[in-house]
Please model this.
Amino acid sequence: MKRIGVLTSGGDAPGMNAAIRGVVRTAFAHKLEVYGIFRGYTGLINDDLKPLTHRSVSNIINRGGTILKTSRCPEFMTKEGQKRAVEILQRNSIDALVVIGGDGSYRGAQILAREWHIPCVGLPGTIDNDLNGTDRTIGSDTAVETALDAIDKIKDTVNSMERIFVVEVMGHHSGYIALKSALAGGAEQVLIPEVKFDIQDICHEITEGYIRGKASWIIVVAEGAIKGMELARQITEITDLETRVVVLGHIQRGGSPTAEDRILGNRLGAAGVELLIKGVSGVAVGVLNDQVHVVDFEEALRPVTFDTKEDLRLIKLLT
Ligand code: ADP
Model:
């Protein structure tokens, strides 16, 4: 193996740059060449790639986003698109690929490895922490910190003005950001896609609290559980109390990665390249109990069962 390619794909996540740096510098340490592929699978299909140097990844460890850019690429989901991607890899003499992204990106990498015999490893780059075989994904820690920072600020005004605030955070299918930021932020309630909820019960608690003199509430909601605007509308309708909404949106994807996400990116970037050198392919690299952990893509893509019970219990207990 002489030359590897690296791409970031799907939703961007803080720490992807640290992972790219980990890949590039490790490859150089092992005398390999590295090509950066731009905009994920789109760049692969359109021959949008260039050689990276040691300097290409200087001063990026602290930056959010991804220097390689990212995209969603429907064309890559077709056989013709994949065939074209494989031709581009061969034309550029790229022997193996590191794919940094979420579950969709892993599905693409799995197909490249299994059906097209391209040596491929995946690194978990997604703020949602929704991949199996790893305790954390690159970007999830930063996203929780960003949501928490917003909740802390909202809390100041909530307590001064005595209001109900709904804070909508990202997570179509995953309640990770909502749950962790709600617990760390001392929110009164959290609603996540994984757990059923009853708006009547929530409103009952709010009304009971109001009678006892508790007028300030923060409810953190993952976008996939119910939209913040809709939740606020229903709460106001049922309780007759004014309810404000903050939708955090894309700020959760940006920002300088936390130390944890940078270290994770560096570590998994290095591990990914070292696995390719050993001839391992079709796998996702993660960390379990602070040890690098390798699972095949199929295992990584199994539905994630993360324990929500203890966090939910604590939020209720400590309110
Ligand atoms: P993420 O990787 O963040 O989950 P997406 O789900 O949008 O983001 O996936 C990123 C890209 O991965 C898609 O735009 C597509 O090019 C590729 N991809 C996703 N699912 C598949 C699939 N089943 N087969 C082939 N490629 C896929």
Remarks:
- Residues 140-161 form the longest helix (22 residues).
